[in-house]
Amino acid sequence: MSEHRIEVTINGQAHRATVEGRLVLGDFLRIDAGYTGVHLGCEHGVCGACTVIVDGCAVRACLMLAVQADGCEITTVEGLAAPDGTLHPAQQALRDEHGLQCGFCTPGVVMTLAALTGDDKRPSADTLLAALSGHICRCTGYQGIRRAARRLAGAPAGEEPA
Amino acid sequence: MKPAPFDYIAPETIDEVCERLAEAGGGATVLAGGQTLMPLLALRMSQPFILVDINRIAALKGAARADGGTRIGPVMRQNEVIADPTLANALPLLLTATRHVGHHQTRNRGTIGGSIALGEPAAELPAAAVALGASVEARSTRGVRRIAAEALYFGPYATALEPDELVTAIHFPDWPPDTINLFREVARRPGDFALVGLIGALTVEQGRIARAGLAWFGMGPTPIKARQAEAALLGQSIAGLDARGIAELAIADTAPFDDHHATADYRRTVGRRIFARALQEALDARQAA
Ligand code: FES
Ligand code: FES
Predict the structure, then answer these.
(1) What is the CATH class of B58-173?
(2) Which residues of B touch A4 (CB under 8 A)?
(3) Which chain B positions have a beta carbon within 8 Å of A134's beta carbon?
(4) Residue B31: partners with Cβ closer than 8 Å, 6 or more residues away
(5) Ligand lying closest to the C-alpha of residue B102
(6) Positions of CATH 3.30.465.10 in chain B
(7) What is the tens place of the pLDDT at every residue in A25-64?
């Protein structure tokens, strides 16, 4: 069983640690680094709750080893809102459209939407809706989440095409 | 739901990977994108002594034109495949198939080589490799060899690759630009493995089919090459082609099974329909053009 020194940037902060080879990134972020906004549901790549942004891409934190993130920039849901508490547009859209209930799946959904709408990316509503297939939500019935995605894409949020 | 302990190494070169795989004598597993392997590790269905991460090897990334085709590095991410303009030109059918692999989030890590080397029978990319006539380049300390995709798969997750071999490239031959591409997948939800899937390429020259590559996924223990349908199509004039008859031949090569998602009968019935419809629609579109 090997151990490895890693250095990652999490939400802009450098973080050094020694990790076992088998430690998955999601557990590392929660337990070692204290970012408990990373939710682990299934721990085998099915639910999407653990989604974080690694070097600009939304990925499942349970399907990557912590040691593989050595040298990477990671954003968790804690890193999205502005220091004054202003929500990220993805967070605001979910809030406005009632896209969450218990909130367990929400950090993952937020990270997918944030990754796809960040910088000056202008994704279509279809792109965002398709990416939501990577998330399971047991509460909302998805309609609020879909409205939030449509709002983020600049489409009228209330209208759901048949 | 935590992987069993293992030693992790991330070599910088292909030679080092091959040496470590040779030393490990079957106790090592290669980690590419990890979108299938990581769940297997978490569920402890896979318990290697050594995990050999190939993600840091630059020579295994990217795609390039090579000897009458395209050479794709196995560690090219599925979302990189989808976004690559060279591949969009040379292998549009591969891009269509890749768009159906998993979800956006898993395609950001999942690789083309990982999917093709694993050989999940209901996955899109192994079938795409079979239909398009691809071959994999496998390297070990014993040397390099090319294995045709149609000879690669023995059963679910069982391939002709030896435990000490690393896939170092996947070669796709060129298909002429006006090739007819067929792709159909029936799954319960987007991102699920297919209940029934079909992928095919047909090249038409002077109104006749000059080249055909057809494969099923989710229709047996491996991706299934529809050999009888391919043979029947070759040389056929596309005017008045009997799509249903060809579909019947294509189904004859399949060996679907019952599982808790669908029965074998369901798979055959749906397969026959999607095949006939896909072929007919493609021919109609061709003749309208
Ligand atoms: S915890 Fe990662 S996908 Fe469910
Ligand atoms: S809000 Fe409860 S699981 Fe989505």
Answers:
(1) alpha beta
(2) 8
(3) 102-106, 191
(4) A65, B37, B51, B52, B53, B54, B55
(5) 1
(6) 58-173
(7) 999 999 999 999 999 999 999 999 999 999 999 999 999 9
